[in-house]
Amino acid sequence: MQFKLDQAMEVLTQTPEVLSALLRGKSTMWVNCRTTPESFSPLDVIGHLIHADKTNWIPRARLILGGHGSRPFEPFDRFAFQASLDGKTAERLLDEFAEARRLSLETLHNLGICAQHLKLTGTHPEFGNVTLSNLLATWVVHDLGHLSQVVKTMASAYRDAVGPWCAYLSILN
Hints:
Blueprint: H1 5-23, H2 28-32, H3 42-55, H4 57-65, H5 90-110, E1 121-124, E2 128-131, H6 132-156
Antiparallel strand pairs: 1-2
């Protein structure tokens, strides 16, 4: 499938609602569960997505659109969100994410991106030249990957509880 901004917006717009439906009102067991001690919990995912919206996608898009494509993007620290979680409930983080995403999408809309802009390039510190289209498509897949991660992490909390049905539950394998 070829990248289309309007289709990307369908996912990017609804990610906060999907996370809210999955996590709002859930007990601490659900929002803090992990598949391994080092993996992200659902709360970590929310914090990570907030941080990415504020420091990654839009700043990189602006760099590309501003004609500074040869300047490498700032490296993204995927763990920089951790201190911002202290003392916050899932509900508060979900609200913060919804607002961060609203602002990101408003900014994206105001950038007035057209088909020609999608071909403009930036410089990723690891991958080298990438297009604006690559960046925006990655944002969508990043969201979908973390939605999948939240669901798989929550399902894994009941891995032992399902007993022998584990053999038929592909999400656990």
